[in-house]
Amino acid sequence: MTALFDNIMAGGPIGNGAYIGGQWVPLQGTMLPIVNPATEEVIGEIASGSSADVGRAIAAARAAFPAFSALPASERAAYLDRIRALVLERSEEFAQAISREMGAAISYARNAQVPLAAEHLRVARDLLADYPFLSMKGTTAIAREAIGVCGLITPWNWPLYQITAKVAPAIAAGCAIVLKPSELAPLSALLFAQAVHDAGLPAGVFNLVNGTGPEVGEAMASHPDVDMVSITGSNRAGILVAQAAAPTIKRVTQELGGKSPNVLLPDADLAKAVPLGVMAAFRNVGQSCSAPTRMVVPRAHLAEVERLAAETAQSILVGDPREEKTMLGPLANRAQFDRVQEMIGAGIAEGAKLLCGGPGRPNGLEHGFFARPTIFSDVATSMRIAQEEIFGPVLCILPYDSVDEAVAIANDTLYGLGGHVQGRDVELARSVARRIRTGQVHINHPAWDPDAPFGGYKRSGNGREYGEHGLGEFLEIKSILGYG
Ligand code: NAD
User: Fold this and answer.
1) Main-chain phi, psi angles of 442, to 5 degrees
2) d(CA 154, ligand 1 centre) in Å
3) Would you list the domain boundaries of the chain?
4) Is the CB of 101 within 6 Å of ligand 1?
5) Do the bridges between strand 251-255 and strand 261-264 make them parallel or antiparallel, or are there none, so unpaired?
6) What values do phi and psi take at 309, rounded to 5?
7) pTM, whole model, 2 decimals?
8) What is the pLDDT of residue 429?
9) Per the CB 3.0–4.6 Å rule, which of 105, 270, 398, 411 could disulfide with 326?
10) What is the per-residue DSSP string for 113-137?
């Protein structure tokens, strides 16, 4: 166990507020409480940074950038390899921290939140084996060079995973980093910074400043010495970051909200597709930006789908995230709990058919931000529950009469992040997948692919993360004519 983890588990103030220039630096700012959503108790505090702290971190990154970007790719790969090894070695610490800071069931934290996060480090390392940082087109050389100092802003829902999805390709590219994790779930980020430190990454290449979006996040986005800002979060924050970044013409990538459709084609194997679809929607208590929260189903099979969906939801064990058998813990924070309650109320008020779940907490859970897995059927695309991201365990079932109508429903959203198609006729499934306007579509629940580019069409964002495309976001392209 690391001393930092012991400190975190003991609660109380975590004095080491920021990691700047290779050192832990105590911050003077306001203390922000960290609340365990399962108990509603304050389990620690972090000191929040100021724009002056952000300035110091950016200066450290700027100073580290020239040497780090000039390293051979194999050396950057070796750093990524060491960080990954430490994350895996300390995976139980990370899982415990994530479970406490945002409520993930401990088995989910162990089996998904941490190992999937480590995959981004592996993928970035592996890409460096033969990435074409310099290629020729005739006599012109095309060089791909690190963009510079990157401000990375991450959310609380997959706290470690969202960090590695940005930090790993940034390191692979040769960038220097200032990270601002979510102020609501900063514990795993602190452990990550410790792992980076212990991996021996040169001082200043990676820096972390805790704090709020309006203070630390906007200071990063607007700073003239930051070359790129990448945010994963709400559309509201994504817009503010882009606005703050605009005067300095920096690159902005945004991974924002979603309202992803799951189209069940008329020949889908319902006995498989419906339970898998429900579980995918409720994974991480529905707090995933690409959760397939709109199940689009043939009207002729509506009754069968409703029966299977309700059965699945009722089999989900919601409870204490520390228990191994718990499938879903609480929602991550009070704001999220209130939002989910409000949207369940909106669904009922709009006349959607409540199949299971509903307002309030599950039986037997009087404290904590626990919500009931809720399914609405007969949902119309005009309803708020069909249009707004809920970010909780709430699934909408929308019936259709023709495949064209199913595609129209799937695309009837401002978002364009994820999509799913289920069907036995592979050709039909492929053609529908190609008509869905989202950055990623899954056919018949394939295995997760950390190399598959991930990102949004429409208002779900700009840019792509993961794999080679994710690395590309951190690179500038230079053509050198007459090189060859
Ligand atoms: P949020 O927007 O409240 O916060 C995300 C991050 O942005 C936090 O670090 C926060 O402090 C920061 N932030 C907030 N206001 C800011 C500002 N004015 N300037 C700079 N930074 C600011 O989002 P959240 O509640 O933490 O996360 C949930 C949202 O994230 C959902 O909308 C979800 O869909 C989205 N999300 C998207 C993806 C994706 O890959 N597309 C993945 C996960 C979550």
Assistant:
1) -110, 130
2) 6
3) 3-256+461-480, 261-450
4) no
5) unpaired
6) -70, -45
7) 0.97
8) 98
9) 105
10) IHHHHHHHHHHHHHHTTT--SEEEE
Between the CA of residue 187 and those of 8, 38, 476, what are the distances in Å? 7, 16, 33
- From CA 208, how far away is CA 183, in angstroms rounded? 12
Token pair listed for 165:
């999805």
Instruction: Give the type of residue at 124.
Output: A
Cα–Cα distance between 159 and 166 in angstroms, integer?
Answer: 12
Ligand 1 neighbour 229 (Cβ under 6 A): no
CB distance 154 to ligand 1 below 6 Å:
yes
Angle at 216 between CA 213 and CA 222, to 5 degrees: 95
| CATH pick for 261-450 out of 3.40.190.10, 3.40.50.720, 3.90.180.10, 3.40.309.10 | 3.40.309.10
CATH class, 3-256+461-480 region: alpha beta
- Whether ligand 1 lies within 6 angstroms of the CB of 241 is answered as yes
Question: Which of ligand 1's atoms lies nearest the C-alpha of 417?
Answer: 41
Mutational pocket test of ligand 1: of 289, 336, 413, 465, the residue with most ligand atoms within 8 Å of the beta carbon: 289
